[in-house]
Structure formats: C-alpha cells, structure tokens
Amino acid sequence: METMVETKGLRKTFMRKDSTPIHAVKAVSFSIYRGEIFSLLGPNGAGKTTTISMISGLIEPSEGDAFIGGYSIRQQARQAKQLIGVVPQEIALYPELTARQNLWFFGRMYSLRGKELKMRMDEVIEFMDLEERQHDRIDTFSGGMKRRVNIAAGLLNRPQLIYMDEPTAGVDPQNRRRILDTVFRLRDEYQMTVLYTTHLMEEAEELSDRIGIIDHGEIIALGTQAELTERIGAEDRLVIEVKRPSDEQTLLDALRAHPQASKVEYQVDHLKDIDRRGGSAVTPAEEAVLTVYCQNGRKLLAEVLNIIEQQVEISSIEVRQPDLEAVFLNLTGRALRD
Amino acid sequence: MDKIFVIAYNDLRIYLSQRGNLISLTVIPIVLAAVFGLSTAPRGGSFTIDFIDQDNTPASQAFVDAVLAANDAFVRGSEAANIESARTRVVEGSISAAIVIPQGFAGALQTFEALPILYFSREDSFGGPIQHSVNTVISQLNSSIIAARAGELVLNALDIEAETGALYARAQDLLAQDLVAYDFRLSNAERALQPGEGFGQSVPGLGAMFVMFTVLGGMATLLRHRQNWTLQRVIVMPISRAQVLGGKILSFFILGMIQYLILFGFGALMGLEVGSRIVLLVFVMAAYTLCITALTFAIASSIGSEGQAIYLANLLSVSLAALGGGWWPLEVVPPFMQTLGHISPVAWVMDGFNTLIYFNGGLMDILPYISVLIGSSIVLFAIGIRRFRIGN
Lengths: 338, 392
Description:
The complex is a heterodimer. Chain A is α/β, with parallel strands linked by helices. Chain A has helices spanning 48-55, 77-82, 99-109, 114-127, 143-155, 173-188, 201-207, 225-231, 248-256, 297-309, 324-332; strands at residues 3-15, 21-33, 37-41, 63-68, 71-72, 84-87, 161-165, 193-198, 210-215, 218-223, 236-243, 261-274, 280-294, 314-320. Chain A has two domains: 3-231, P-loop containing nucleotide triphosphate hydrolases (Rossmann fold, 3-Layer(aba) Sandwich), CATH 3.40.50; 236-321, hypothetical protein tt1634, CATH 3.40.1520. Chain A contains eleven helices and 14 strands. The radius of gyration of chain B is 30 Å and the shape is elongated. Chain B is mainly alpha-helical.
C-alpha cells in the first residue's frame, strides 16, 4: 500500500517557565496509507493535537520529521501543506463574516481565485449541505452548523489528506451522525486519506481502518481493531451489579474457584455525606460491581449468575466483548475516560 | 504578496463590519475634535477697535491709520458716543479694545508736550496684539519727537532759529522712509486669526490619540484570532509566517491611516489649512502610524488576554497622547515635561505636524521627526515579530 503520511521520531518538548521540560510527544513514528481512515485515539492531554499540529506544520518538531506525500514538513513545508486540508478542533472561522465570506478567504489562502474559487466554494457548500445558510453570518449558526462550515473550509483545496481533530466535539447526535457519514464519503467518494483524532472509543471503532492509541505522548498500540484486541488476548467481561454482600470474601472465593474465570474484580463505590455544619462522613455504597473475566462470556453467564444468586441479590447484568476500551485498559491500567 | 493583501482586506472587512468599530472610527473622533477645536479657536476672525478721536486733526487721523495698519485683522468699530460707552463695549466683549485720542493731540505733538492716550482692552497684563501695535505706533511718534527736539537743540546751539513743527514733520518723513522703522506686525496675532485655527491642535492631536486607540486595539484582534484558531488555521495553509504577519501589519497600518484621513478630512471641512504640503503631511501620518503598528506587535507578544489588551490599549492611548502634546501644545507645559513628553511618539508626530502647519516647513524640516518615528518602528517591529507566537 502507498504511504501518504510517515512520521519519523517525531518529538515535541515544551519548556515550563522554570525551565523544566514537558515532553508532550516522545519520538512518535507511524505511517498512514493512502485512502484509509486512520484514527489517533487517546485521552485528553495524550498528545494527539500536538502530534497533528507538528504534522500539519503549525508547530515545529523538537526532533524528527513528518512526510506528507513524500514532502518533508520541515524542508518542503509549502508543497506538503498544499496536499493537506485541516479541520481544527476549534471552530476556526470568523464569526463576523458569512459562511461564504469565510470560505472565500480560506480559498484565497490556497491561492484559489476567480471561477475556480467560486466552483470549489459551491462544491463544498453543497457537500456539507450549507446552501440555505451560506450568506448568513457564522455567529448566527448552531454548533453543528459551525462544525460543518469548519469542515467545508478544510476541503476547499481538494486535499489528498485531511486532518480532523475531534470534529464532533460538542455536537448533537444528529449532526454527529452527519459528520461521521461525511468522513466515510471523503474516503469512499473522494479517495481522501483521513487522519482523525478522537477520545471517543465508539467513533474510532466505527470509523477507522486502522487505529493508533496514544498515551503520554507515545503510540502504545497500532493496528486494526481486530489486531489490537487480538494482541492483548482480550476476554469477555461479565459486569454484574449486586447488593453489597455481607460476606464478600466467600462470594469472591466461589467465583474465583470457577475454572473458566481468569480474573474476578470487586468494586464498591464510597459515598461522601456532607452534613449541615460542613462535616463529612464517607460511607460505602449499598451496591457493588463484580467483573468476571472469561472466554466466551455468554456461555458462562448462567453458571456465574447461579453462584452469585445463592449469596446476594443481582441488580443488573452486562456482557462486554473486547473493545478498544479494554485494549487501553490492558495497556495502561486506566480507563480511556479517566 | 497577493496573500498579504487578502489577509489585510479580510481583517479590514471584519473590522468595518461591526457598527461599534465604525462609530469609534468616525463619530467619536469627529465629535471630540469638534469640541476641542471650537473650544480653543479664537472668537471671530478679527479684532474690533473703537477709536474716539476728540482731536479730529490730520495728526490724530494718521495715528488711527497707523494703528489699523499694524495688523490686517484690526477692524475699526462704529464710533462710540463717549468714553463710558466705549469702556462698556469693551467690558461686554462687543469690541476688543477702545482708544481715546484727546483733544490737543496734534498741538502736543508740535510742542512736544506729554498727552495721555486712553486705552481700554480685555487683554491681560502682558498685552496682546492691539496693545503691542499701539505701543509701537506711539514709539514711532516718540522717535519723531526726539529727533525733532534733537534737531531743535542743535540749531539753537548754532543760533539758527528752528521751527519745531517743520522739524517734527521732517523726522516723520525720515521714519516713513524706513530709516529707523521696524516691522511691528505681530505674526502670531495674524496666525491666530486663521480660519479653523482651533483645529490646528485638535485634529492632529486627537488624530494621534485615536490612531492609537484604533491600531493598539488591534492587539485584542490578534489575540481573538489566535484564540478562535483562525490564525493557526491560516498558518497551516501554504503561506509563510512572514506573509501572515505582513497582512496583519498592513491591515493595522491602513486602519490607522483611515483614522487620520477621517480626522484631517473633517479638519479641512472646518477650515484647517494644510496648504500645499499634503504629501509631507501624509508622510508624517504614515511614519507615526507605522510606529504605532510596530508598538502594537511589540506589546501583543506579551499580552495574555483580550481584556488585558483592551485595557492596555486605552491606557496607552490616553496617557501617551496627553504626555506627547496630543491634548494641548507641549509649549504650555514646563520644560522638563516637554523633554519627558518626547518618550511618546505623539510628541514627534506633533512636532512634524506643527512644523508643516504652523511654520510652513519642508521635507528637511520634518526629516528628524520622521526619522525618529521610523527608527522606533524598526526596533519595535524587530521585538514584536521575533516574539509573536502564532499558536497559543
């Protein structure tokens, strides 16, 4: 497969005011193939935006380089940028201008002019379904509409590669669906390569041909979803919410004794009560969560429930199959949403 | 180059699309310039003087003519009925001054006798253009008398009978031939009567202040464009950092020049004379606007929020305008404040404007002021551009 983006040892170090370094991105190297949707998945602050900012030429890497269509972003920035369309996380538009005036300006920045510029503007306006509001000021638009104009501005130059940095942030479900469908259309109808960043596992799972998981400035896993889950040998999880048992240890021993349960976790939340005088007391919640790790959870469910029901009342049951959340948890020991 | 103009055009379009900006660019400066200009303008365009000629002789008439000839702005008022009514007219401000030439004026000149001339005016104890003119005419009369008396004494010593009147007449003839006459026309009094005189200070002075309000206000715009990521979005397009900054600089510069042109256009409507030196005037405006644009970039690199930027822009505009002579001429403040005032670019631009408007200066005369402004611009741009961050 032809490589569209290649990063080599990309590193970014910021200096605090007291001269101590912050390593935002640590020697990141990966490739993105032409025509694929590649998601960079990670929690907030993991280094996704810094990585994308270096690849797009917004910030200078401290070390390493990125190549877009073979052009070095450090040495041949102008040629590389010509191939890129950028959709920032922020609504990077002039609120005082109309949608069309915004598109005119960004089109001119891509050296488009005259009939060609008009044609491209009409094209992206139609593509993002903005015809009716194209002459209205951006500050009169809803959040979802603004997001669509934001995307339209990134498509004006018919880029070979489009970066989309959390484009569904703060968007209602209807507009979110529309944006996700747009991403598929960009790949399928326009053969664009999409580099998509998100902290939402569901989006990455739905959209991506391949996924890079980033944490603390490092790519900790990369591949298709199937490759990633297979790689950690992920098991199903039976998540069972129960009334807190009087004898926890007996229940846990009984579950752990089952030959197909590889691991059992028990978690009780604690509640903090604050009285009128400002004093507080921490008490355990009346409910607890049992998580049983096993192969083929659906088959084992009846047996596990039988063990639990003998000792305690069950509130809810959920069978979770391996997902990116599990992958992230397995790799970092933390949930993606933490 | 094309992209620099597009960025500047876009920024100007955004600025001018907001009604509040249009008001602060036009209405507020014009209203303030009008208030300041009309407040500091002299009342009327002439000085009216009442003469009560009780002697009514050719000599007294010659005295009246000599005083009126001292300044084109002197106008003879209607004949007052008596001394008291003339004094009342002066006190009420109907006329600028009244002069009473007593009966026997011509005879006193012939016999060299002292004779008081009554003079009423609203001028202060240091006198004004009328009093200076009267004193000068009287000095000329005295010169003629002294010359005639000297001649009489010499002739008497030679036992030659001399006629006093003839000697006096001869002395006056000699003075009229400019043997000892001097120019007593008061140039400042004459200039003070130019139409639009009050606007000679208010238009350039307030112009300097409002250019600062407008251009320094650009700090907030820069920060806003960085916060809403439009600046970053532009820089990831195929355009250099220098082009982005060039576009921003050009837009601020054009806004500053528009502000100046609005105020000077208003000044011209109000009668402010800038004569044929318009090109030089534009040079001075451009040098100052460039300096303020550079100051904007130098400061913007250190400002963290839009609120800070607006506060600082207002503070700097008002204080530097006051310090540099934008509100009142620096000539009226103590010498050390005149020196201190020149830390403000307003002082240098006002020096340039004053040289052109009041002293009919040329390019070489304004070159020092322009040089200081452009030199400062270069230093400030070097600081600002080097430190300015496109990203957060």
